[in-house]
Amino acid sequence: MTSSPDDTDIGYDVPAAIGDKIADIQTPALIIDLDAFERNVARMKDHAEAMGVRLRPHAKTHKSTDVALYQIANGGAVGICCQKVSEAEALVRGGVTDVLVANEVADPKKINRLARLARSAHVSVSVCVDDPAVVATLSSAATRHGVTLDVLVEIDCGARRCGVLPGEPAVELAKTVAAAPNLAFTGIQAYHGSAQHIYDPVERRAAIDKAIGMARETAELLRDVGLEPKIITGAGTGTHNLEGASGLYNEIQPGSYIFMDADYARVRATEGNGTVGGFEHALFVLTSIMSKPASGRAICDAGLKAHSIDSGLPMVFERPDLKFVSASDEHGKIEDPQDTLKLNDRLRLVPGHCDPTCNLYDWYVCVRNGRVEALWPVTARGKLY
Length: 385
Prior knowledge:
The protein folds into two domains: 20-32 and 278-377, Lyase, Ornithine Decarboxylase, Chain A, domain 1 (Beta Barrel), CATH 2.40.37; 34-258, Alpha-Beta Barrel (TIM Barrel). Helices cover 29% and strands 23% of the residues. It is built from ten helices and 17 strands. The strands form two sheets. Strands 1, 10, 11, 12, 13, 14, 15, 16 and 17 form a nine-stranded mixed sheet that branches. Strands 2-9-8-7-6-5-4-3 form an eight-stranded parallel sheet. Strand 7 (183-189), helix 8 and strand 8 (231-234) form a beta-alpha-beta unit.
């Protein structure tokens, strides 16, 4: 029997095969420019070493065992942050041995899973708390599984999201943690999430200066009662250089630096021009033109289901003559005033927000020199619980 093109093509479950040209990748696909990615990883390693702080990258950005292990092996990472217990479970199964759930876990079933995860040989598990009611549940689960959980007290340092009030309320919570069986008070989580995307560097520094002040006050009060915060952690891609140079924080948690996105391109560096840290766009939604219905307009196959637009529409990479102007479920509308695009042309879109975009895909298609070099599964895709 003669094979049809479909019979000899790549499988239905992967968008490309190793060695494919970029033109052969099925779209829309999530692609990583490996050269840019590796430079970003190396830059953050250098930044952390220069500031003398530990680097614990946030895996909520990439949700990938392959990326996490690369950051640990090559990027100076001491471990990985996660947001959900299921993310931590997926990464530990893939070989990550040090995870901080940098978030609150209140549900008893989730807490039980977290304590069970800490039973794994050579695995270190830590978690944040902001409520004394959770401490007893954490302690009971840790005791039941015969483990000790490292616990950080999270303070609200300006984001008005999670976190106990800094100062005395945080100290009282730390005392509760320290007194609980099978829990070890480890330090302070002080992450100002909304400050990461303050575009103006002066305003961004002012917000972080306030956060540092709150964390410093809390640390001093903890020491006054004999509770040493061994770890003071936080910071993200947009402010890592501020907390890292504070002389207070000894660990930073940037995530998006490995990929960057269209919104981070608008976050101006604290000194000089360019992006914070000099990081490059390394993550793209590869899309194809599937319709050219009228002069000045082209339609691509990357719509709302292909990338997150909560932080704005994507940018067309290295094509200032083109503008992505709107999206519906399966269509993206591109202004093409010079009518340069034709059917099946490929474009790289820089997503507006990389983190939720990554969660839409099963695979990273990793490219170098115009060809597919690797396929990395998005290990913790959909791990929301």
